[in-house]
Amino acid sequence: MSEVPSSHAKRRPDRAALFIAPVLFLLACVIWWDAGRLAEVTNYSRIGPATVPHVVAIGLALLAVWTAFEAWRGDFPEREPVEVQPVVMIVAGLAGQMLLLKTAGFSIATGVLFALTAFGFGRRKLWISLPIGIALSFVIYVIFGRFLQLSLPTGPLEHLFF
Hints:
With 162 residues, the protein is mainly α. The chain has two domains: 6-73; 84-161, no CATH class. It has helices at residues 6-9, 15-41, 51-73, 84-104, 106-120, 126-147, 156-161. Helix 5 (106-120) packs across helix 6. It is flat. The relative contact order is 0.10.
């Protein structure tokens, strides 16, 4: 006679996944509702701008049901502990970019985001990653702002060259 392993039999429902499942379903409902508004705009064809959002909403709803089922059975693998410091550094980089974008311009603000994200991923030398990030961001600014004529926020570095 084969017995069910005791670790599998004693697993409880995964509370985090049971929280995620209704959030996925709510997101599916919002996408379905918004796609329904798109369908009112054009009704000359069966396939239109609402088709893909409806498919995405159905996929999310199925994923929500599957997530709830797996969570209730306790079939999700054990999660590794979350390291808070890298997450904080990446969020700080995003906040820094948002705060600096209008005053410092695209290149410097995005360079700060690059440096803090690299720091969060383990690259501890900010004095190297910050100038590299600013240089790469400046190249991106030149490509998108000058060659493609997109409107990007300018700062002192961009005004220095253009």
